[in-house]
Amino acid sequence: MGKRNREKRAAKKKARANRGPTAPRLDFDDHEELRTLPPTVSPEMVAEALKEAAFARAFDTDFVDKCMADLAGRRPVASPRTVAIGAGILLAAVIDAVWRKGWMPVDVREHIRRTADAVASNLLIDAIAADTAKHSSSTVDERWAAQVRGLDAKVWWESGVPQLLQWVDRHGTDLERALRTTILLVDELMKLPELPLIVPRPGSAAARSSSAVSGVDQKVLARVRALLAKAESTQFPDEAESLSAKAQELMNRHAFERAVLDGEEQRKQTAASTRLWLDAPYVDAKSHLVSAIAETNRCRAVFYPRFGFVALVGESMDLEITELLATSLLVQATRAMVAEGSHSTRTGASRTRSFRQSFLVAYARRIGERLEEAGARAHDPVEDELLLPVLAARSQVVEETFEKMFSNLTQRAVTVSNGAGWEAGRAAADRADITVGRQAVDA
Description:
Helix content: 55-70%
Radius of gyration: 26 Å
Number of helices: 18
Number of strands: 3
Strand content: under 5%
């Protein structure tokens, strides 16, 4: 065996170890055995060849090109139908493996949106639609189904013809480009690590028996969304912060009323989890804002810097409050940050990045303080006798769930190296009188 082949095998072994278990393996075990496919090629052989090409994509482009020539070249070893069926088999197996690792539809879409191109994202959406269609709706958790609907993942293709061939026609491309997109998508998905399972995957017994609970009353939710929409659209920072504070107070009052009802009916407290993806840049600093909002609303947060999302654990209504406010306040914080303009030293060197990093961290700290004040105003002292025991029981369940899901955490500190940015961030979050009696915040 030549030196080059030994290097390729070593790289392949390392890549496989990094990925961990993926789709079930077929009969082939080495690239060398796939160099010359047998005269009669089955879809399963095509699936295995494509998977090996995905493994080889980072370190053996010659093998990938050879695979493309065999499957979609001038003299392919199999018909386009067989090749397309094989690609479908591989995508289905890899998608199933990703679900078993704890990822959800929105998670994989967000990851592929950041690491690949729009074409790969489009193929992923179709793979999600195909996977969902395999299962009875009664075996798909409503939270999962809601994500699929949100992605607009629908089966648009006709039965009887392999989906990939119809995908090629729909996008005006050719089979080779479709296969290269498949390899790219499979490569990215196979590298994903395991995450805590937060929603039962489709088809599981747990999915059949679970029931999603939407904690927030729709009328209250509509009022809160209206307040936040006004906050995001106004050009006046003090008004935006007042509107956000009003939304926080309204949501907390509703949450406390529901908690009192739980106490009266002696309902068992439960905790759930969700993930909130952040857009670059400054994802580390933005995660501090999400964490501050989560803490204010009785939730726990864990930041995944490698991928750019925050995992949240809390009672279902508290999670809804946190997601809603975080989404809006991230928009407001970014707008306030950009409004500060560019910054540089006396010598002309740019300090914009350090300024904005410090700005967002300070903004997060002060917004957390202000939202806590707004939440405290939602308390009714008359109800505290019933409310406090419920909140204590809920906090215990959240902590136990959090510890079970995240047992090996490390603390991360964000660097604040720009005093001007810190002061500007606190000022942006502190300019307003956030008393809810103001005319500007009436809903």
